[in-house]
Amino acid sequence: IDTFKLSSYPAALKIPNIALAYLQFSKPIKERILDENIKPIMESKFKNIVWIIDESVTGTYLSVNGYEKETTPYLSKLEKKSTDFINFDTVNSISNCSANSNLFLRIGMNPKKHQLEEISALPTIFQYAQRAGYKTWLFDSQTQKDHLQNQLTFYDKKSIDNFETLGVEVNRINKDKVFLNSMIDLVNDQTSSDKNFIVLVKYGVHFPYLLTYNHEFSPFSPVLESSYGGMNFENREKQLNTYLNALHFNVDMYLKKMLEKIDLKESVVFYTSDHGQNILESENLSRPHCNNENVVKNELSVPLFLFTKQAKTLFPKRKDTFYSQIQMFPTTLSLLGYSDELVSTYGKTLSEGFSKSNERQYILSSSKETKVFE
């Protein structure tokens, strides 16, 4: 609901979506239970496991994934020379809506493994991490101070040892930087014996794009002159260039800052986005994502990166396979030390991939129900 408090959204758009969100999320809240008999069978090899969930980053618009404009020059060079970075290319997001994607990532929702009725009961990755002896952290740059979003409940907070948000005193451009530094400090702390599971929900490239990057770093022009308007085909070039500048700042420069400071020796970092964006790619555009009809593929196309020492050896990409962000959950369970039997109930890990003959599935939100699309 907070998303629609941005001044750039008119009341005609905000009010129906606030009403929809209320109807969708006002059901009785139930506590998620992790069976007490489920425990890791081995010690994790990693002291720190980090998830970075960006906002509105479309994988196909990153040059590291083949886009013609150099939106990610640093990552493109890094991919060629570093063994510590593996790029799974543009992958499926599980949903084209922020709330659903963040929830489904958090509970490991897999359309091929779970029924929609299980959404309210599946344990969270924080519960599994805490059970494995990890201190759990959630840094959320998007939401208001001390405010829960993305269907996170007060029950879920019981398995999050440290939940941190920021107030209005921090500029939106700086919010991701603040929590990036907090995460790096935790990972690099050699004085602590704590194991950490850390999730960063970024403010990222949240619409309006003009407000999400430092304009000193604008390799693409012309851009929009105002954050208001712009969602029309006459302004497509400006809107696209504005978005590409935001990607360059929030993906390439952000990850460059991280990798220049972070110690990956005992740590693994996953990077993806909640969903992609429709940058005026459909004549029936109603909004850049979270559409239920005339859905553009880019709404569901996101990056998936993994950073750790010898990443390309630990997670070799297989020929004739594709990958999905739903694999972050079972891969993380495996890294936490849980059994292959448990891991397989959530699907394949990133060490396996999927056969390209398999159909891809997505979960979209509608005004009546949450449904699976193939």
Please tell me about this protein's structure.
The chain has 374 residues and is of the alpha/beta class. The chain contains 9 helices and 11 strands. The protein has helices at 11-25, 73-81, 98-107, 125-131, 172-188, 236-261, 311-314, 328-336, 340-344; strands at residues 48-54, 85-92, 134-140, 162-165, 195-201, 267-273, 301-307, 321-322, 354-355, 362-365, 370-373. The strands form 3 sheets. It has a 7-stranded mixed sheet with strand order 2-7-6-1-5-3-4, sandwiched between helices. Strand 10 and strand 11 (370-373) form a beta hairpin. The longest helix is centred in the middle third of the chain and has 26 residues, at 236-261. The radius of gyration is 20 Å and the shape is globular.
Which structural traits does this protein have?
globular; alpha/beta; disordered N terminus; single chain; 7-stranded mixed β-sheet
Strand content: 15-25%
Number of helices, counting only DSSP H or I runs of 4 residues or more: 9
Principal-axis shape: globular
How would you write the strand order of the largest sheet? 2-7-6-1-5-3-4
Q: How much helicity do the residues have?
A: 25-40%
Structural class: alpha/beta
Query: Would you identify the regions where 5 or more consecutive residues have pLDDT less than 50?
Result: 1-16, 366-374
Q: Main β-sheet: number of strands, strand sense, barrel status? A: 7 strands, mixed
How many strand segments?
11
> How far do the termini sit from each other?
27 Å
Q: Radius of gyration, rounded?
A: 20 Å
Summed over residues and divided by their number, the pLDDT gives a mean of 88
Spell out the helices and strands N to C.
Answer: HEHEHHEEHEHEEHEHHEEE
